[in-house]
Amino acid sequence: MQQIINFFIRNKTFFLYLLLLSISLGFTFQSHSYHKSKFINSANWLSGGIYESMNGIGDFFELKKYNRQLVEENQRLRSLLINNKLISHTDDTLMSDTTSNRQYKVIPAEVIKNSFDLRKNYLTINKGEHDSIRQDMGVISSKGIVGIIENTSGNYSTVQSVLNTISEINAQLKNSNHFGTLEWDGKNQKTVQLVDISRVAPVKVGDTVITGGMSAIFPKGILIGSVSEVNPDVSGNYFIIEIDLFNDMTSLGHVYVINNEHKKEIKQLESETINE
Amino acid sequence: MNNDLIKIIVRFFILVLAQVLVFNHINLFGYINPYVYTLFILLFPVKKESRMLFIFLSFLIGVSIDLFSDSGGVHAVASVTIAYIRPVVLRWVFRNAYEYQTLKIAATSLGQRSLYIILLILTHHLILFCLEIFSFTDIPFILKKTLFTSIFTSCLCILFMVLFSRKKR
């Protein structure tokens, strides 16, 4: 017994190292799987607060750009409104159902931390649980898709960006209903990949890609990007389509979080169907 | 001793803030960010008694960086590892001065100091990017990123060391 204790005391540095190494490896591997990075993320009061106060300074210099973006978006929405005679009543939400029961709620938020140089990129926004933001809500900007809410705290949330090698988003072609999965290979910040599109789909360079609305996270029809390259995959049965994002992911200011009010109902129905 | 401890704590906070607010946003050529917070580990006073504290603080600075950059625990792994292997590198680079406990990193020659910095930073970045990218098909990319980022970080670290070292002559 004495010898064992002596052994531990002699090698205490090594054991401390092993302990700390296993803790940090634990954090690392947790973050490799979906929805597991619970402990170490930037949606907390400390890092969120620091990022927010620094962002306040940076924001001042971007005001002109934000104004321009808002004017452009207003213009687009106005033209939609005028051209669509069906919508006669004015709505305060961006994506409203024509039925009286609104399915999607939109919450505005501001990006306080953005990253795009890593393989697994996360953003931090300045809205959290107090603003009824929960995990797995979609995040878009005025130009297109941004990502999915990953972790939330009281006042902040982290967003798993589309520029993340573990992100998978349902997407489809605008002019046909062939759908696939949106992924990122980690190489270029401007292009993402659409995989699992069947070879029979009529795809050509320049086509627009939109969200597919099969996942209950994003409503159907949010813009993603345009096709820049079409390649067959290894098996030859599917396409791998390179997509140029409409959004400039390296410069994000104001974003919108989309809350699907029917998500619980959809999820419950789906799980019941599988159980039976 | 007390004075030293305060200096270490101040350095800890300054380096974490500088890293997350400035150096994480440099994006040279699109993907190169220097990890200057490793200076904390490189400059920690060389004393055999405080090794446990040193390893623990290195772990802490790694976790702090991870906390801000949503990277899981990759910085913690890399930092704690170079903190653990630092004595080996010190013995190899500085030989006698390290054996006789008279080593002050600020007082060594620029050549030796640069070798020491480059060795530890290469190790740190290799571990960091292996874990961050974590895929066999991307080994060339890992090596490329390690090489370029190491060069950038080393240059900045040597520069900061020269700029902020007080001459005691």
UniProtKB/TrEMBL annotation, chain A:
* Top-rank lineage group of the source organism: Bacteria
Q: Does the keyword Ribosomal protein apply?
A: no
**Keyword hit for NADP:** no
Q: Which residues form the Rod shape-determining protein MreC beta-barrel core domain?
A: 111-258
Q: Which UniProt keywords are given for this protein, alphabetically ordered? A: Cell shape
Q: Name one Pfam family in it.
A: MreC
- Kindly list the GO CC terms recorded for this protein: plasma membrane
- Gene Ontology process terms (BP): regulation of cell shape
Which family, according to UniProt? Answer: Belongs to the MreC family.
PANTHER family listed in its UniProt record: CELL SHAPE-DETERMINING PROTEIN MREC
Role: Involved in formation and maintenance of cell shape.
Q: What is this protein called?
A: Cell shape-determining protein MreC
Q: Which organism is it from?
A: Zhouia amylolytica
TrEMBL record, chain B:
Q: Which UniProt keywords apply?
A: Membrane, Transmembrane, Transmembrane helix
Superkingdom = Bacteria
Q: Does the keyword Transmembrane apply?
A: yes
Which parts pass through the membrane?
28-46, 75-94, 115-134, 146-164
Q: What name appears for this protein in its UniProt entry?
A: Rod shape-determining protein MreD
**Which organism encodes this protein?**
Zhouia amylolytica
